[in-house]
Model the fold of this input.
Amino acid sequence: MKDLHQAILELVRQASLELPEDVLDALKKAGQREKDHSPAQMVLSAIVSNARAARERSVPICQDTGTPIFYVKYPLGMSTRQLREQIRASVAEATRRGFLRPNAVDSVSGLNSGDNLGGEDFPLIYFEEHENEDLIIDLLLKGGGCENVGAQYQLPDHSIGAGRDLEGVRRAVLHAVHQAQGLGCAPGILGVVIGGDRGSAYAASKKLFLRKLDDHHPEPVLAALEHRLTEEANQLLIGPMGFGGLNTVLATKIAALSRLPASYFVTVSYMCWACRRKRMILSGETIRYE
Amino acid sequence: MNEPVVTDEIPLTLPLRDSEVKELTLGQSIRLSGTLITARDEAHKWLVETFIRPASQPSPKDLDILAQLRSLLMGGAIYHCGPVVEKKAEGGYRILAAGPTTSAREEPYEAEVMQFLNLKAVIGKGGMGLRTLEACQQTPAVYLHAVGGAAALIAQSVTRVVDVFKLEFGVPEALWVLEVRDFPAVVTMDAKGNSLHEQVRAVSQIELQRLMARNQ
Done:
C-alpha cells in the first residue's frame, strides 16, 4: 500500500491551522450584522483576525484541537488495518509538531498519553468501502467545550412542552441552545438528529458538521426546519461568546434516522465557530485537499 | 439590561491594585501585561484538595510550589487555559496556541481559590456563577473574558514562558507561568456584583419563553 504518512500529516495540519472558507465567510458576515462597537462585534473581529494569525504563524486556530474524527471512504481491496496504522502514526507526528495538543487522557489514571493515541477509539476512525477508486478521508476536529454542551432529549418531554413531532423537535433544539448560552463558543453550528438510538444519533449528529454551511437538506420540510431553527436560535440574543448579540448560530444541519416505535430521540451536537474540517482525496497518484 | 459598549482598550499591568479592580465595569475592553499562570481542572482540584481542604499534610514539594505560586500571584491573575506548547530544541518552551477553556467547570472551586491566593483577576470563557461573583466582590477581583478559540491571536501576546509547575498533569493541565504583553480580554463580571452572563441569560430566557409560547 502507498505510504500516506506525509499526506495524512498534511491533512491534519490543514484541518487544525486553516478555517474552512465557508465558515470564515459566515463569520465575517455575522460581524457586519452586529452593532458597531458592541462586544459581539469585537468578538467576531477577533475571531477573523485569529484565523489570519493562525495561517501566518502556522499554529493551531484553537488550542483545543479536540477529538480527531476521521471518516474514511476506501476502494475495494484497500487494507483498513494499514490505513488505521498510518492515520495513527500521522496523528502522533502531528502532535509532536504542535499541530495538535496532546488530548488523549486515560479516564481512570488521569494520565495524558502525550501523543493523542489512546486505545482503539482515540483518534476515532470510521471506515466505509465505496465503489469509487479514490480514497477520501474527511477529518473533523471537535473541541471539548462545544462537546460538553451537546444534549439528547427523549420525547415526549413535558418540561419543555415537546411532543413527538417536528414542533417537539423545534422546542428541544431551542432549549438546548438556551442551555448552552455562550459555553460552546458561539456562534456555533447545530447538528440535529431526529430519531435513531442514543448512540447512532450522536454519531450521525457529528457527521453533519462535514456539510457546507450554505447547503440545505434535500427534503423541503427539513430544509425549512433547518432555516427556522437558525433564525429562532438567533432570536435568543445570546450572541458571540454569550456576550449578547444577533449571531448565536451560524447554521443548522438536520438528519432524520429511523427509530423504534418506543423511542423518539432528538439529539443536538454543537460545533463551535472553529468548525475545523478538511477533506483529502487520493485519486490515482494525485492528492488534493478541499 | 444596559447594553455594554466596547470602550477604548484599557491597559492594565499585573499585579493589580484593589482600586484599579474596583473601577472596572462590564463591557470594558482591557489589555493585560505582566505575569499570569494557567490553571484549569486538575490545578483547581489539586489546590483545593491539597491546601484548602486537605485530607493529609501536603508534601514538601507541593508546599514549595505553593510558596512560589503565592509570590507569583500576589495581586495576580490565573488563566483557564490548556495551551499547545512547543519544546524548543535549545531548551525552554514556546506557546503556540493559548485560548481560554470553559470556566464554568471551575465554579465549585474558584471562590475558595480566589480567596486563598488573593487573586485580582480570573481569566477564561463563558463566565462563572454566583459564588464566584460574590468572591469577586469580597476579594475584590474581576472575571475577564478572553475570546474562545482565538488561540493564535492570544498566543502572540505571550512573550515568555517563565516556568511550569505540575507538568505531570499533562501539557494542557499543567500550571504554565506566562509573561504576557497586551493580552486582550473583556470585563464580563465586575467587583460590584454585576455579571454580563447573568444579564444575557435573563434576556435569552424571556426570548425562549416567547418562542415556546408560539405553537405550530
